[in-house]
Amino acid sequence: ARERAPRPEPVPRPWLELGLKAERASATLTETVVQFELEIANTGSAPARDLRIDVKMFNAGKEQDKEIGPFFRVAGRESTKCYLPGIAAGTTGVIHGQVTMKRDDMRAVKLDEKLLFVPVIAVNALYDWGEGQTGQTSKSYVVGRELETASEKMGAFRVDLGPRVWRAIGQRQHKLARQI
Predict the structure, then answer these.
(1) DSSP states of 102-153 as a string?
(2) In terms of C-beta density within 10 A (0-12 exposed, 13-18 middle, 19 or more buried), how is residue 38 classed?
(3) Quick one: which of 15, 38, 93, 105 is 20 to 30 A from 138 by CA?
(4) pLDDT in tens, 75-123
(5) CB 15: neighbour CB atoms within 10 A?
């Protein structure tokens, strides 16, 4: 009987996991701002280099997935909000940032004479690894007001009462995500 050669191990590579935590939202007469903490964990077995991270706010609604998909294709290539030189295998980093949307771009929904806005935040991380390889991790999150009773649902932001700040906010991961 011939002995089989052992299977070669796959090439060690980084795998980035993203976790966004919405910390505060505010609305002025000209824009809406969401401040966030972004956790980036390299769960792979090799370092990730030259991280190009982009974050964008979208309007929740029927068109959101048609807008987020193209963002995942170009983010980090055409625009970058944050750059990190690298993240070692098995380590986690945290970035604090904010994302804005101009009032003119906001598609608030009118309900019972109230103007309600629900943002979706998309995060895209491109990175290099190995010899000329590129990886990508993308996630999207619906952001809203946390209700007094814990719930899967969140409240919308009411944007017709003048400038406001919301501190009791949260996020739920949206289905649009990719990891390459």
Answers:
(1) EGGG--PEEETTEEEE-EEEEEEEEEEETTTEEEEEEEEEEEEEPPSS--S-
(2) buried
(3) 105
(4) 767 777 788 899 999 999 999 999 999 999 999 999 999 999 999 999 9
(5) 16
**Intra-chain end-to-end CA distance of the chain, in Å:** 40
Residue type, 90: G
- 121 with 99: CB under 8 angstroms? yes
Backbone angles phi, psi at 68, to 5 degrees: -70, -40
Tell me if the pTM is above 0.85. yes
| Paired tokens of 168 | 């009791």
Strands lying side by side in the sheet with 164-166: 92-102, 31-42, 16-27, 164-166
Report the b/e string of 109-145 with b at 16+ CB within 10 A.
eeeeeeebbbbbbbbbbbbbbeeeeebbbbbbbbbbb
Q: How many CB atoms lie within 10 A of CB 79?
A: 13
Tens of pLDDT, residue by residue over 37-83, are: 999 999 999 999 999 999 999 999 888 999 999 999 887 677 777 88
Q: Name the token pair of 154.
A: 């969140």
